[in-house]
Design a protein that fits this description.
The chain has 233 residues and is mainly alpha-helical. It is 59% helix and 0% strand. The longest helix has 23 residues, at 185-207.
Length: 233
């Protein structure tokens, strides 16, 4: 306590090793990147809906956590495993990672499968990915999974499809290059998202009427105005 950050402690408890300060900073950034994505994700909607019934904070947050699964948060693990398959293919077939990515995406198109961790509803280039990759490079992390992720993004661009590496894909690639166990990746997302769910539940309990019909899309923000963080201009 008071000596290592929360991200470093998460790394320690999941791997048994205390990370270097740059990797600890990277772990912190990964947790911050997933702490909250607004009121529209299934976990937030679920937590708020349960809270509106008068359920306890623990029950409401637990309901939100229980909605994190294969289709919500699962892209982190799925992307990491797919990137490993691409790097394995490059080695097995004695081809470049770029070629392995191109062949893999072609096969996925034929079967109707989608590449997890790529594409975004709003961003043509996810700014969170750029920041996480920057911190990863500063920490000396840029292994085969990050290389494969860039190869997939290039293959999409060559095919005239703007499907950037999104934050889930970036986190999956980085955690895999940190040699963490992919089975834990959805759990890391849960750890990160919990503070956001607590905030949603508290807001629902203190500001909204019980048993209201929660609109999954139409939300407005009435919190504090934009402020600068220390060190920002």
């Amino acid at each position: 306590m008071g000596r290592v950050s929360f991200g470093a402690a998460v790394h320690l408890i999941l791997t048994g090793e205390l990370p270097s300060p740059p990797i600890a900073r990277l772990m912190d950034a990964i947790l911050v990147a997933s702490i909250d994505h607004g009121a529209t994700p299934p976990s937030a909607l679920t937590a708020r809906t349960v809270a509106s019934t008068g359920a306890s904070l623990s029950a409401s947050v637990a309901a939100g956590i229980m909605s994190i699964n294969r289709h919500h948060g699962g892209a982190i693990e799925d992307c990491a495993r797919q990137l490993k398959a691409i790097t394995d293919r490059a080695a097995d077939e004695s081809i470049s990672v770029d070629e392995a990515a191109t062949r893999t995406l072609a096969e996925m198109r034929e079967t109707g499968d989608r590449m997890p961790g790529f594409g975004h509803r709003y961003h043509t280039k996810d700014p969170r990915t750029a920041r996480l990759f920057e911190l990863a490079r500063e920490a000396g992390v840029d292994g085969v999974h990050m290389q494969a992720a860039r190869a997939v993004e290039k293959a999409f661009a060559d095919a005239k499809k703007l499907l950037p590496i999104n934050v889930d894909g970036a986190i999956g690639a980085i955690l895999a290059d940190l040699e963490m166990e992919p089975a834990a990746f959805n759990g890391i997302f849960m750890i990160a998202r919990t503070p956001g769910l607590v905030a949603h539940v508290l807001e629902e309990e203190t500001r909204e009427k019980p048993m209201r019909r929660i609109d999954p899309v139409n939300h407005g923000y009435d919190g504090p105005p934009a402020r600068s963080l220390p060190g920002q201009s």
